[in-house]
Design a protein that fits this description.
Structural class: mainly beta
Largest sheet: 7 strands, antiparallel
Shape: elongated
Number of strands: 12
Oligomer: single chain
Radius of gyration: 34 Å
Helix content: 10-25%
Distance between the termini: 83 Å
């Protein structure tokens, strides 16, 4: 009897160990990657940036600064700014944008080493009552912005720019063009053949996308 009990017990244990499994099991895992907001700014048409000025009148051929902006983000991801700088002999680069009679203007400065304008010339033009004798080697022209697939561009006072610059809103667009063209006629009393020496006049325009926190 003791022998039989022991045999039955052993047989029962073997049946449990070799019993086939009929249940199924599974586990899901999701692969997640993140595409951060990004923006790319490039020249739209660099050939438009070069022009000439008639020495007798100061009439320009209206060159343009042009930018293409591509982004996969929203307006809230970036602060878009357009700045303009003109070089002075005593204060380095200063803000080249200003307003006069509710119009937007930009100042171009001579970049020949011996004819770079003094900051007094820039301030004279921005004063609202410029005098030809007070702004040698600096010329002011109105600016017009052409926006393609861009919601707005507003000239505002911004400490980041050291004064006036354009705040740009892309709106719902992910691909837009910004073209800024200078007018043909100089602002009154900012050009004279006797005070503005021959040479290359320029302003450096920069389109920046600053990532918001």
């Amino acid at each position: 009897m003791k022998y039989l009990l022991k045999l039955m017990t052993t047989t029962f244990m073997l049946n449990i160990l070799t019993l086939p499994s009929y249940s199924a099991t599974s586990f899901q895992q999701t692969i997640v990657t993140t595409v951060p907001a990004a923006v790319n700014i490039s020249a739209y048409n660099q050939s438009l940036a070069k022009g000439s000025i008639a020495p007798q009148t100061g009439i320009s051929t209206s060159p343009s600064a042009s930018f293409n902006i591509k982004t996969n983000g929203e307006d809230c991801n970036y602060s878009y700014l357009v700045q303009a700088k003109v070089t002075t002999s005593n204060n380095g680069e200063v803000n080249a944008y200003f307003k006069n009679s509710n119009r937007d203007y930009i100042i171009l400065g001579n970049i020949s080493s011996s004819n770079i304008p003094n900051s007094n010339s820039i301030n004279n033009i921005k004063s609202g009552t410029p005098t030809t004798s007070g702004n040698a080697n600096a010329i002011a022209y109105s600016v017009t912005n052409m926006l393609t697939n861009i919601e707005s561009a507003t000239l505002t006072n911004n400490p980041t720019c050291g004064g006036l610059c354009y705040s740009v809103k892309m709106g719902n667009s992910q691909n837009g063009n910004f073209v800024q063209t200078i007018g043909s006629t100089p602002l009154t009393n900012t050009y004279s053949i006797s005070n503005d020496r021959a040479g290359t006049y320029q302003a450096i325009i920069t389109f920046t996308a600053n990532r918001n926190p």
